[in-house]
Amino acid sequence: MASTLSFFDAVRNRRSIYKLDGTSPISDGRIEEIVRQAIQDVPSSFNSQSTRILVLLKEDHEKFWNIVMDCLRAIVPKESWPKTENRISGFRAAYGSVLFYEDPEVILKLQEQYAIYADRFPQWAEHTSGMHQYAIWTALEAEGLGVNLQHYNPLPDQRAAEVWNVPQAWQLKAQLVFGSYGPGVREKLPEKSQKPLEQRLFVYGR
Ligand SMILES: Cc1cc2nc3c(=O)[nH]c(=O)nc-3n(C[C@H](O)[C@H](O)[C@H](O)COP(=O)(O)O)c2cc1C
Predict the structure, then answer these.
(1) 180-189 own/partner pairs: CB under 8 Å, 24+ apart
(2) pLDDT in tens, the chain (206 residues)
(3) Is 158 in the pocket of ligand 1 (CB under 6 A)?
(4) pLDDT single digits (tens) 30-44
(5) How many domains, in total, are found in the chain?
(6) 170: domain CATH number?
(7) What local confidence, expressed as pLDDT, does residue 2 receive?
(8) Whose CA is nearest to atom 12 of ligand 1?
C-alpha cells in the first residue's frame, strides 16, 4: 500500500493488469487526491502545464467505454468483432478511467514565444503527457488498484468532448483504466521480460 512503498518499490510494483472489476480499494476522494497531486507536481516542458485530465468513475467510466465500443463496432470487421467486444467489455467492467489530454493552445503559444524550438513543442507535450500517465499509473497501483494503459484515441474524442464538455481542440492521448483485481491475479502475471541490460544502459566516467 502507498504509505509503506518506497518510490522504487512502487516503480517495481507497477504492471499492466487487465482482469479488473468495478470496485475500488480506495475512496473516490483518494483517487481524486492522487490525480490532483500528480497534476500539481508532475513537470512539464517549459513549465507549460499543458496536460488536462478527466477522471471518469463508475457510470461515467462505463459510458466512455460504451462510446469506444460504438466507435469500434462501426469499423471492426465482423469476424474480429467478438474479440474486440470482449476486450472493450473488459475495460468497461473496471471502476474508472483517467483520460489524458494535451491542450494545443498552450503549445501554440509556446511555439510563438520560443520560435527557435517551435518544432519541438509537440514532442515535448507527448513527453509531458507520458510523465503524467506514468506518475498516476504507478501511484494508483501503489494504493492497491490494478491499472492498464490504452490508446483508443482519436475514435471517441468527439463524442467524449460532447458528453463531458471537453473543448474539441484538446487532444486525447491515452486512457488509464483502473479497478480492483482478485486474489492471485498479480501472482499470475507474466514474468517481466527483460532485454539484456548491456544493450540498454551505458555508464561512463565511473
Ligand atoms: C507508452 C506506452 C504505451 C502503451 N500502450 C498500451 C496499449 O495501447 N494497450 C495496452 O494494453 N498496453 C499498453 N502499454 C502497456 C505495455 O504493453 C506494458 O507496460 C509492457 O508490456 C510491460 O508490461 P507491464 O506493464 O506489465 O510491466 C503501453 C505502455 C507504454 C509505456
Answers:
(1) 180/20, 180/21, 180/23, 180/24, 180/25, 180/95, 180/144, 180/145, 180/146, 181/17, 181/19, 181/20, 181/21, 181/146, 182/19, 182/21, 185/17, 185/19, 185/146, 186/15, 186/17, 186/146, 189/15, 189/17
(2) 445 689 999 999 999 999 999 999 999 999 999 999 999 999 999 999 999 999 999 999 999 999 999 999 999 999 999 999 999 999 999 999 999 999 999 999 999 999 999 999 999 999 999 999 999 999 999 999 999 999 999 999 999 999 999 999 999 999 999 999 999 999 999 999 999 999 999 999 99
(3) no
(4) 999 999 999 999 999
(5) 1
(6) 3.40.109.10
(7) 47
(8) 149
Ligand 1 pocket residue status of 127, Cβ below 6 Å: no
Dump pLDDT digits (tens) for 8-27: 999 999 999 999 999 999 99
Is 41 domain-assigned? yes
Between the CA of 204 and the centroid of ligand 1 the distance, in Å, is 30
Q: Is the CB of 15 under 6 A from ligand 1?
A: yes
Distance 103 CA to ligand 1 centre (A): 24
| Residue 8 within any structural domain of the chain | no
